[in-house]
Design brief:
Layout (H helix, E strand, L loop, with lengths): L3 H22 L4 E12 L16 E12 L7 H68 L4 H22 L1
């Protein structure tokens, strides 16, 4: 569940869903509002004793409006963009499914490898125990004259090989 590849694929799928919604938005009518304000103050510089009527020293203006845009003919481009975005969304969904399958496959392979490694360790431990017992027997037979030194050395070599295999398996 916490795999970063899977999280990334889910985020891409979510982004593709938003792309489809955005493409569909180009087909809808649009309504926009605007507002503008202006203020001007001359600070008494427009007065003159020669003028009978003094001009206004301050002016304020404001305008507010709505604008509606209704698409009548668009040449098919927005509809094509919606289809393209939908196809990309389907592709993203398939990538999520593929990523999920890959994650499951990797987890199963790792678990099988771990179990296999534990079995190899258990087998190597049994081999070390068997070769230790065998070496003790060969040494006992050598002490009574039934075995030669070469056979003792061979038994020691087998034990050493089993110990090396055990250390390798544990690593």
């Amino acid at each position: 569940r916490e795999n970063p590849d899977l999280a990334a694929a889910n985020q891409l799928r979510e982004a593709a869903r938003f792309d489809v919604q955005s493409a569909r938005g180009a087909l809808a009518p649009r309504l926009s509002a605007f507002g503008q304000g202006q203020y001007q103050n001359s600070l008494g510089t427009l007065t003159s004793p020669l003028l009978a009527v003094q001009p206004a020293q301050q002016q304020s203006q404001a305008s507010v409006g709505l604008q509606a845009t209704l698409p009548i003919y668009q040449g098919g481009r927005p509809a094509a963009q919606v289809r393209q975005a939908s196809a990309r969304q389907s592709q993203a969904l398939e990538q999520v499914i593929e990523t999920e399958r890959l994650v499951v496959q990797q987890v199963r392979a790792a678990y099988a490898s771990w179990r296999s490694s534990n079995e190899v360790i258990r087998s190597a431990e049994a081999a070390v125990a068997a070769n230790t017992l065998s070496l003790e027997g060969v040494r006992a037979e050598n002490s009574v004259g039934n075995r030669t030194i070469i056979e003792v050395l061979n038994a020691e070599q087998e034990l050493l090989n089993a110990q090396v295999a055990l250390v390798t398996a544990r690593r």
